[in-house]
Amino acid sequence: MQLAPSKCRALTFAVLLICKAAVGQSAPSGTNAIPPILATPTRVIELNSHAEWRARYQVEFDSQGRVIVLYRDNLKQSPTGNWHLIRFADIWVNPKRDELVFAPIEEPTDPDKSRIWEGSSVNMQITPDSSTAYVIFRGEAVTSRTGPRKRGGVRNVDFRPFTNAVSVDLSTLTIVAKRDLTGEPHQLDRFSVDEKGRLVRLQTNERSWNVHTLSPGLNLDATTEMGLSTGPIPSKCQVEVDTSINCREAEGLVRRTSSGTQTLIGRQGSGIPGWFNLLSIRNSVIGQSTDETAPSDRTTLFLPDKTGTLLPTSIETRPACGRPANKQSWRLAFASPDRHTVALRCDWEDQYFDYMIQIVRQDDLLLYDTSTWKPISRISLSKRKRTSVAIWHGGSESVVAMLEEGETLRLYRIPDSLPAQ
């Protein structure tokens, strides 16, 4: 079919207008343009699990780049336990699977089976040398009670909180020790691991900050008292190798030691008013600040140098996160242990019935190479399935592991960006 000359000229003019508009909307030269194509999984592994979706599942990497998965199955209670710790080696060639099935000292209980896992948490910590994995279990044993209902109580039940830990030898995938760590309630109770492979526990109350270190056998090695606390106790803190404590507080990132406090990143002192975020990575921290008066496509990340000083870098975050009508932001979410690769996650809120209902949604991940501060990949998160994410960097590539609902493991192989010119 042939077109009349007038129609050809009109079509050519329309094409030129479209091309001109596309060129005008392209990213300015010199900006960190986001890769337009989403990364696809290099390998997908089905765990063939019957994961309990209400209990937390977790994926991590060891120092050799092997993938470690933790989940609980919802089958009939087994004498050996219902928790599975799986290690995958040679993930790109012929994945080798080793598995440990175990039980903690205590798990949550509730007369209402649908509420068993409410308020519970499970956290796996792997030592820097990958010799030991510590699994911390927290929850409540809920029992029915007789007599009148407690004042203000919705249910006539008693609550007994508990905390226990399991130490696993990762070289042999055997249990080293189990210990009940339940004690007096504290306003802040956090676990981490130090460079010597010990489990570190930070506990605070109104008068003191105490750091307890436990051996792989879960025996108490030492207790360090940090002194009296002043003001409100922060909700997020991380213990460093030298038992100093980094906390996210109202004024920014503050380091607390037995001799006093030091502001590492100040909101007002650094001229960064907006909100502040903190990510703990292997006994160090990465900070993020967003200036509410700055363009919405920029954020500032703080990474430590060799001396531990946190240095700011302003990066571009495009495309826009979420929908224009929603509250959204690219938030620092994950990082490789060597801090070479960091990932920002798009968190945004859907609001219904005049803000009576708020649903937080998670979309894509943006991965950045911190040696050049250029985006190296964009990965889509599932909109309907809960996902655990871990990042590892080695050689000239990063590996992203995504565990969906404790059943499907998706692995992404991302090459590093080119050196800065």
Give a verbal description of the structure.
This protein is mostly beta strands. 5% of the residues lie in helices and 49% in strands. It has 1 helix and 28 strands. It has one helix at residues 5-24; strands at 43-46, 58-61, 67-72, 83-89, 96-102, 121-126, 132-144, 157-169, 174-180, 188-193, 199-204, 209-214, 220-225, 236-239, 245-249, 252-257, 260-266, 275-281, 284-290, 298-304, 310-316, 328-335, 341-352, 357-369, 374-380, 387-394, 397-404, 408-415. The strands form 7 sheets. It has a 4-stranded antiparallel beta sheet with strand order 1-28-27-26, with no helix packed on it. A 4-stranded antiparallel beta sheet has the order 2-3-4-5, with no helix packed on it. The protein has a 4-stranded antiparallel beta sheet with strand order 6-7-8-9, with no helix packed on it. The protein is globular and about 65 Å long. It starts with a helix and ends in a 6-residue tail after the last strand. Residues 5-36 and 268-273 have low confidence and may be disordered.
Strand elements, count: 28
Give Rg in angstroms: 25 Å
Q: How large a portion of the residues is in β-strands, by DSSP E?
A: over 45%
Query: How would you characterize the largest beta sheet?
Result: 4 strands, antiparallel
Task: For the largest sheet, list the strands in their spatial order.
Answer: 1-28-27-26
If helices are DSSP runs of H or I spanning 4 or more residues, what is the number of helices? 1
**Would you tell me the structural class of the helices and strands?**
mainly beta
